[in-house]
Amino acid sequence: MNVKGCVKIKEEIPVNKNNSNCAALTSLGYLKGKSKAVKNSDENLKKIKIIRIVSRLNIGGPSVHCSILSKGLNNKQFQSKLVAGSISRDEGDMSYLINANGLLIKIPELQREINFLKDIKAFLKITRIIFREKPDIVHTHMAKAGAISRASVFVCNLVFNRKIKTVHTYHGHVLSDYFGPLKSWFFIWVEKVLSKSTDAIISLSSTQKWELSKKYKLTSDDKIHTINLGFDLTRFVNTNEKGLIRKSLGLNDKTILIGIVGRLVPIKNHFLFLDSAKKIKEKYPDKPIKFLIVGDGELRYQLEAYAFDSGIRDSVIFYGWAKKMEDIYTDIDILLLTSNNEGTPVSIIEAMASSVPVITTGVGGVKDLLGNIEKKCFDDTVKICERGILCQKGNAEAIASGVECVFNNTDDNDKRVAFAKQFVFDNYTDKKLIGRIENLYKSLM
Question: CATH for 234-425, among 3.40.50.2000, 3.40.50.720, 3.40.640.10, 3.90.1150.30?
Answer without folding.
Answer: 3.40.50.2000
